Amino acid sequence: MKTLTIDIGNTSIKYAVFNGQTMVHHQRIIGHDIASIADDIATYRPAHAMVCATAALDDTQRRLLEELTADTWFLSHTTPNPINNQYKSPQTLGMDRLAAAVGAYSAARGEVLIIDMGTAITYDFVDTDGNYVGGNIAPGVQMRLRALHDYTARLPLVDAEGERPPLGEDTETAIRCGVIDGIKYEIEGYLHHFFLKYPNLSVFFTGGDELYFANERKKRIFADKMLVLKGLNEILSYNLR
């Protein structure tokens, strides 16, 4: 049986077709052209779909999504899933964060820290018993670069790509190094804290802005851009049993 998972963000859509637990097709499109998904997956003919939407959906978009399969689910905080959500305000937890937590826990079957490098950087923790304990939210790379420009009189808007000496040698490199190295040190602080407390921890990086840490390679660190889509498939499978 083939299934479809869809992750609708603010600027793009990611989707994947699964045959059981195996991903057989995936795609990312810029914008929200849902009709193009139907054309792309026509040959796979998935029977069920699970949709996670960060962006608001209008009635037309929801109807198009419902027509993609005979059984389309929209993930919400009330949807049964394989982990126990202990967030004090579950209705405010981003469904992409919940799906990523399910995907990571299903893969590791133990304590997991999920670091999503998107518009915001989110840190989410699931304990060994499958309890989603909570998480933190911090500004992402582009948000920090934009804030330095927007909230000061003279600092330029700097691109994340470019020269990065050990210390900034001019305003441009000072901003770029300050933002990117600051995020790396921030993440390294989280890793140090969590590995001390949970020696068997697995860490999953996902999202668009990937950062790697050579000095942490020996530990259980994984990069998986498909983590949300895999988590959505786990949630769908859990509800179809």
Structure overview:
With 241 residues, this protein is α/β, with parallel strands linked by helices. The chain folds into two domains: 2-110 and 227-240, Nucleotidyltransferase, domain 5 (2-Layer Sandwich); 134-223, ATPase, nucleotide binding domain (Nucleotidyltransferase, domain 5, 2-Layer Sandwich), CATH 3.30.420. 34% of the residues lie in helices and 28% in strands. The strands form two sheets. The chain has a six-stranded mixed sheet. A five-stranded mixed sheet has the order 3-2-1-4-5, with helices on both faces. The longest helix has 27 residues, at 171-197. The two termini are 12 Å apart. Residues 212-217 have low confidence and may be disordered.
Task: Give helix and strand order, one letter per element, not per position.
Answer: EEEHEHEEHEEEHHEEH
Beta-strand proportion: 25-35%
Please summarize the sheet with the most strands.
6 strands, mixed
Rg computed from alpha carbons, rounded to a whole number of angstroms: 19 Å
Q: What is the third-level CATH name, the topology of the largest domain?
A: Nucleotidyltransferase, domain 5
**What structural class results from the helix and strand content?**
alpha/beta
